[in-house]
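Lecture notes, unit on protein representations.

Consider one protein chain, 601 amino acids long.
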Amino acid sequence: MIGTNNKKVYNEVSDGRWRTGVWFATVFLCMLAEWWMMKRELDIEYSNAIGTLIKAAGDISLILAPYWLLNSKWRWAALIPVWLVAIWCVCNLTYFRFWNDLIPPAAVTMGGNMDSDLLGYGLALLRWSDLLFLLPPCLASIGLRLIKPKKSSPLRMMMKWSLFGACLMTGVAGQASYFKTTFSWRNSISVRSFSEGLSDHFIGGYTGQRQLYVYNGPACYLVRFAVDAVGVLTSTVALNETQRKEIGDFLHHYRKDPVLCPDSISKMKKKQDCRVDSMNVVFIIVESLNSDMVGKKIGDWKVMPVLDSLARAESTVVFDNVVSQIKASSSSDGHLLLMTGLLPPEKIAYSITYGSKDTFPSLADALPHHNKYLLLADEGVCWNEGNTLRNFGLGEPLAIKDRPEFPIEKYGRDGAMFLQAIEMVKKIKQPFFMTLMTISMHIPFTEGAWPLPEELNSTQSLSKKEKYYANMCHMTDQYIGDFVKALPKNTLVIIASDHHQAIASEDGNVRAFYMAVNSGRTKRISRIVGQVNLFPATLEIMGSGMPYRGMAPSAFNPCVDGTIDSYGNIYGNPTQETLDTLRESYRISDLIIRGDYFKSE
């Protein structure tokens, strides 16, 4: 009888432990499926199958390690990370499909900046295949009901800690595998010591959220994301005297150095037919404009005939090989670069955190006697753009709500904005400085008022995304043409991309675009330049004598033959000295914005 009872107790304990192990395996496999699907969606390739398996097992083991320390009644909690990871994957995929990165820590400060456009973009970027990410948590939920881990028997203390330790050791193996990948990748860029490699891996510099996920793994990524998010929330710094001197010396370097400083403003003034004080200035920042769209044909159909014609005209300056240098604030970073010559901060969405309150020396300061007008094709809310651009001194923003006589259902958002601008030009006092920000070429490239023309609809060589983008380019181009025709003759018109946009999978070398029409000089420059080089170039074109306080030399300067973007990628053929200076400029600009340097300068 005693033996029978002992056997019964043994079977119950064995059954309880079976439930514990099966439930862990179920959750593990569900998270493995999520990891694999995200790897596939992000187009991540690792060097070998074994290393890939170690990476996956290591990260999932680290996340699930606390499971073994839970009491039986709490083991259902292992379901929580399965659902959270699925939701995280879907949200990040919609972000990734436009920005080509994962959601940055700066997003924690964006709560009040969700306008209808932003929400519309997110919904439009979802795919039916994204529902597959809900399959693992649904299966895990079913498994929870079938396995009933709460009925599992308690594990002995030694068993608990042994299994917990095994998870940690698997996690260490995974991180070692990730470190090998990271170390090889960074060494291919520049030689690193082992200790430098460890520092790069665990506390290294910001390289973008996707790269952090790829090279450090989800577990390390989550920790770094949380640390960076706290850093964003506490990002404001009080500049000390050493930092102020560093900034001052750097800015003075560009005023003084004959090789690195912008071309002589006085020399440009002699060549100008009209002075900056008497000419009107219009600056059109075109959302997601790729330079290859200007002059592109699809069959006999010209994508942007107006911009192509303006680019070929006398007195037009063109830079058609501009590298985007945006970061956490994306389009708003493009505005910062073009309007102030500053580079975006390392991790902060500057427009959210500092856009309304910092002091920015901007292009508007070069036109103190001009009447300022600012038109936005959207609602002026997302990324705090309305407040930020107002703070640049560009004027009071006029957004969708300010043009009821031009309904977007009839004209599209860009069309309505340019029609309002045409009416304004007839009435406003000269000289004026008018800034216009388009939006229709923002992904998902749709306007109800702008259906696909037959020339595009019947084209077999383009994807749906490429067709829609080309249509937005074409229609925005037409409205720009109507607006330019309505301008007074003594008007300098500058048209620039806020950043480039990857449309097709082979778009690895697409560039942003910049041109100045009626500039007093005719020039097309195809050297690789950065967006940061365009602000001083604009000052030269205007013949402005404003003291230059930007981060880089003018794009006109022959020494600018390559650049480095915000993620450290090198383009063109910059010298090592130029690269060192550019890297320093990112650090200096970060300090300037976080410390509001120009407020007390």
